[in-house]
């Protein structure tokens, strides 16, 4: 009976040691799980902040693109008006050459002024068109970035 008692005590001690080892492992795993949860929450917050930043940039780029489009439209209208003026000056120039009364110098000056205005408008139109193209490229870059964020998010969800 004493031997059996000693054997049972030995088994109980072994089971207690095993139980304590398992409890330590469980506490360690719980700590690791909590650390992973905290890390994932931080990553989710960082990702959300990045998405908000990208959305703000997208809105800003959209505003810039609309502004550039409006500017391009305005410059096209101004260009058309200057073309009409140029044609009028050319007609006046032709009339002066055919002998009608007006000073050739004034006509030449008007034509030069119209030409300078036309060149300025054309330069501005080119600049606005370049800005519009640049804005479109930036919007494409933002769209690509949003797609990659979606892929990262999907990969994170599949990884869990």
From TrEMBL:
Superkingdom, taxonomy of origin: Eukaryota
InterPro entries: ENTR1
Gene that this polypeptide is encoded by: Sdccag3_0
GO-annotated cellular components: centrosome; ciliary basal body; early endosome; midbody; recycling endosome
Residue ranges of coiled coil: 19-92
Swiss-Prot/TrEMBL GO biological process terms: positive regulation of cilium assembly; positive regulation of protein localization to cilium; regulation of cytokinesis
Keywords: Coiled coil
Hydrolase among keywords: no
Family to which the UniProt record says this protein belongs: Belongs to the ENTR1 family.
Family matches, as PANTHER family: ENDOSOME-ASSOCIATED TRAFFICKING REGULATOR 1 (PTHR31259), ENDOSOME-ASSOCIATED-TRAFFICKING REGULATOR 1 (PTHR31259:SF3)
Stated name of the protein: Endosome-associated-trafficking regulator 1
């Amino acid at each position: 009976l004493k031997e059996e008692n000693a054997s049972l005590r030995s088994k109980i001690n072994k089971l207690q040691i095993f139980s304590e080892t398992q409890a330590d492992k469980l506490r360690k795993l719980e700590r690791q799980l909590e650390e992973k949860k905290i890390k994932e929450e931080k990553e989710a917050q960082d990702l959300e902040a990045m998405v908000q930043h990208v959305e703000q940039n997208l809105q800003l780029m959209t505003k810039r693109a609309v502004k550039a489009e409006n500017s391009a439209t305005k410059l096209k209208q101004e260009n058309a008006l200057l073309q009409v003026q140029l044609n009028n000056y050319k007609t006046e120039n032709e009339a002066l050459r055919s002998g009608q009364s007006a000073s050739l110098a004034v006509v030449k000056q008007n034509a030069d002024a119209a030409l300078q205005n036309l060149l300025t408008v054309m330069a501005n139109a080119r600049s606005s068109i370049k800005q519009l193209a640049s804005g479109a490229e930036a919007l494409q870059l933002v769209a690509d970035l949003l797609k990659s964020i979606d892929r990262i998010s999907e990969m994170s969800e599949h990884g869990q």
